[in-house]
TrEMBL record:
The keyword Plastid does not apply. The keyword Transmembrane applies. This is S8 family serine peptidase. Belongs to the peptidase S8 family.
Amino acid sequence: MTRPPVREAARLLSGAGLAAALLLPTAVQAQAASPSRVPAADGKKGQELPGMPSALDPEAELVCTPASREKAKKQDWSRQRLDLDRLHRHGTGAGVTVALIGTGVDPEAAGLGGRVTAAGQAADDCVGHGTFLAGLIAGTGGDSPRLAGVAPGAEILALRGTDRRGQADTDLVVEAVREATAAEADVIAVAVALPRQDPALSGAVAEARRSGAVVVAAAAPDPPAQGGTEEIPSRTYWPAGEPGVLSVAGMLPGGARPDGSLPTGGIDLAAPGAGVVSGGPRGDGHYLGGGVPVATAYAAGAAALVRAAHPDDSPEDVVRRLTATAYPADIPQLDAYAAVTTVLGAPAGPAGAERAADPVTVRDTSAADRATGRATLFVLLGSAAVLSVLWAGFALTRARARGWRPAGAAGTPTE
């Protein structure tokens, strides 16, 4: 038995509408989903660059990190996320000194020449990690200006907080904090995290804050190279756990902490900490690095910009500004542009507890929005095309049944 044309057309139209309803959210979700892997220097496809270690194998023969022969061809995601191109129109951190406590810094490294003070062992960066971090804080990018650091006009005071292989040493960190205080550094960035609190370190950090320095520290060490972190209990690391210190953790492009991050509490701020590009102490090539120290360097650079833009702010005000203007999340995410440009109201409670008085600048999602819009338009146009074809078929069937006379005309078809 043949179905009447009206019933058949209605059945087809209903099926087409249901298919469109099911396809639309699926297509939108596929376009708007966050990337599952960390992009490197070359946008979505990534780019192969030598890795920058945070420390060298203590059991192996000492061989310093070799010069990189590769150069990044594009700006990496971290600089895009922090909107550094626009940020640098509001300041470069000129006149501010950032003391960087880590593996040392090569004073003649590309993009840093003439703005690094490094005495004694601090000028010998065998690992290369300290020079990598210095580039994120205050590098000009050399012949790649879009790979400049957060505060390319700032000065770097390089201090050793590790042995030559990059293993953290409490006594060296204490001595470095004291040297930074004596040198009247505006920002002190501690790129190492110690597992135990030390009275001498507590005293040195307290004195640094009383002298007017903003102290920024890694919230936790990088995870061990071998073995998982599932059985490692959450604990506080130092000097990040000291009162008034800005404790910083690393994040992926989607905002989450990297897999395997050591558990810890009391984190004040998250900053890019994976797939980040910078230079090293030998040659003018680039490396790919990540980890909590990388995020700490970015936060220290932002602190330098805030100090330059708001010279009358106390260390507590600088920390409050960085946390109050951060992008809202489980762990507030660094928004350096907002930290520099937002007008804050008076404190409403403990430092860092309130939000900005003005709307906070958040990351630009226009690209994702356009992709979602295109997916939506594609599905809607496709659905409309299907419906048009079905309606044309239905109309032709009805017209044939009427003998091609207009709808509503009297009489019957001529035989």
